[in-house]
Design a protein that fits this description.
310 residues, alpha/beta, 5-stranded mixed beta sheet, 16 helices, 5 strands, 48% helix, globular
């Protein structure tokens, strides 16, 4: 087995919060590999031990829940190509989006065993040139790198600052029910992500009506973890210390451009991995029982069900 040992403080947190037992990690990973080998629609899947460990942590070491997430993740790679296909970081379109710095994990956490803090800047792209799904694709790519590299992220989860400055009707119109369903499914049923808090900044005119509508689709736990600060940065600082934030947010930790440059290079360094992973997806023609498709997963119109989180 080839996985990183955790620092003591994170190991202790992993035991208490996500049921991680260092003595059984190897057998849990082995059980997942054996299970994958028995799934005819997942025979081309050969994940690393560290990748499987991220899914175990995101499932609080429930093997059954982990299997469900893995199955759904590789299924979504097949049926949601706008998120999970054509992810060569050197592709000119992806290069331009990466250089916008739309999704940026920060360097430091609040505590040694704290969650990773990320900034999502939705208003940085031109909706006449790109789609919101393009930004989400890049955000998922960076999330997958954190799954492989960031122990704070896999053990303690993430806190997300959503900056919607300069978000106008042309951007909001791209947030369709169909896109929302796909995003919610990715976070609820596929990616091993544990959202600890969500901080919304710089809300535009008309935000309250859209926000009230969106909240109706969310579970109670997630509702309680959302904070709308608008331009009240002092309220944000009470939960995310200034010392951790970039200068553009009144903080002390460098500039957004430095962070953007770092993540452009980091994602580029994973080029071979992303290109190879393009082949790692479910073959729905070989799935026992009924194949999963866009319509069976999301429906034609359908309705939202509540999103619950751990």
């Amino acid at each position: 087995m080839t996985v990183r040992p955790l620092p003591d403080v994170l190991q202790e947190k992993a035991k208490k919060e996500i049921n991680e037992n260092p003595r059984s990690v190897e057998s849990d990973i082995s059980a997942l590999k054996t299970w994958l080998q028995k799934q005819p629609h997942l025979l081309n899947i050969n994940p690393s031990d560290q990748w499987l460990l991220a899914f175990l942590r995101g499932s609080k070491f429930s093997l059954e829940r982990c299997k469900e997430k893995l199955d759904m993740y590789y299924t979504l790679r097949s049926v949601v190509p706008e998120f999970f296909s054509n992810r060569d970081p050197l592709d000119p379109k992806l290069q331009k989006i990466l250089k916008l710095g739309s999704f940026l994990p920060l360097r430091e956490c609040k505590e040694t065993d704290g969650p990773r803090i990320c900034i999502l800047r939705i208003g940085v792209y031109d909706p006449s040139k790109y789609n919101l799904s393009d930004l989400l694709k890049v955000a998922f790519m960076i999330t997958e790198i954190m799954m492989l590299e960031d122990d704070n992220f896999t053990v303690s989860g993430e806190e997300v600052i959503v900056d919607i400055k300069n978000v106008g009707v042309n951007v909001l119109s791209q947030w369709t029910p169909a896109l929302a369903k796909k995003v919610i499914t990715c976070f609820e049923k596929a990616l091993p992500v544990r959202l600890k808090s969500n901080h919304i900044l710089n809300t535009p005119t008309g935000f309250e009506a859209a926000y009230s509508l969106f909240k109706a689709f969310l579970g109670e736990k997630l509702k309680k973890r959302i904070r709308v600060h608008n331009q009240d940065y002092e309220a944000l600082y009470k939960e995310i210390p200034k010392r951790l934030l970039p200068k553009e947010y009144g903080g002390d930790e460098g500039e957004l451009q430095e962070l953007t440059d770092y993540w452009v290079k980091k994602v580029e360094s994973y080029r071979d991995w992303f290109v190879n992973e393009d082949k790692a997806r479910s073959d729905e023609s070989k799935r026992p029982g009924k194949p999963k498709t866009t319509s069976t997963l999301f429906g034609v119109e359908g309705s939202f069900r509540q999103l619950e989180v751990d």
